Amino acid sequence: MSPQTILILCIIGIAAGLLSGLVGIGGGVIIVPALVFVLGLSQHQAQGTSLFVLSLPVLLLAVYNYWNSGNVNWRYGLLIASTFMIGAFLGSKLSLKLPVHWVKLIFGLFMAYVSIQLILAGYQGIRANDAN
Predict the structure, then answer these.
(1) Sequence-separated (6 or more) residues with CB below 8 Å from residue 1
(2) pLDDT value at position 100?
(3) CA–CA distance, 95 with 23 (Å, rounded to integer)
């Protein structure tokens, strides 16, 4: 992995942990879009890697299925998981200091942004398929 990729993975891990601690979301809301849009992984690779990062003990069989089909990047997952803990700690500290309405606003705005990005990406995929 290049130093730039390592830095991006660390930022993804910290951001996912931060928002998980801040608003109680699963880090996959950050990890999957970041791996797809920033690092160019396929949707399945991003989902498999995110499952590895977030829930290895709970969803071992799901991760195994993604891995068995070649859709888990273990090196990315390990690096994100290690930095995720730092972000989760910092995010929970910040969340407890902010008024709850600010936490709700941050969460809602982030989810709206991610939703719009996913809708647009899906729509472009449908249009590209229809053109063929």
Answers:
(1) 9, 75, 79
(2) 80
(3) 7
Instruction: Say how far apart CA 104 and CA 119 lie, in whole Å.
Output: 22
> Where are any strands of DSSP class E within 1-132?
none
Element (H, E) at 112: helix 100-131
Q: Give SS3 for 52.
A: helix
Kindly state the percentage of the chain with pLDDT values over 90.
30
Distance, CA of 9 to CA of 58 (rounded, Å): 23
3-class DSSP state for residue 78?
helix
CB 91 within 8 A of CB 17: yes
Cβ–Cβ < 8 Å for 49, 41: yes
Q: Is the pLDDT of residue 58 over 60?
A: no
Residue 122 has pLDDT above 70, yes or no: yes
- Residue 82 burial (C-beta neighbours within 10 Å; 0-12, 13-18, 19+): middle
C-alpha–C-alpha distance, residues 50 and 44, integer Å: 10
Q: What is the pTM of this model?
A: 0.61
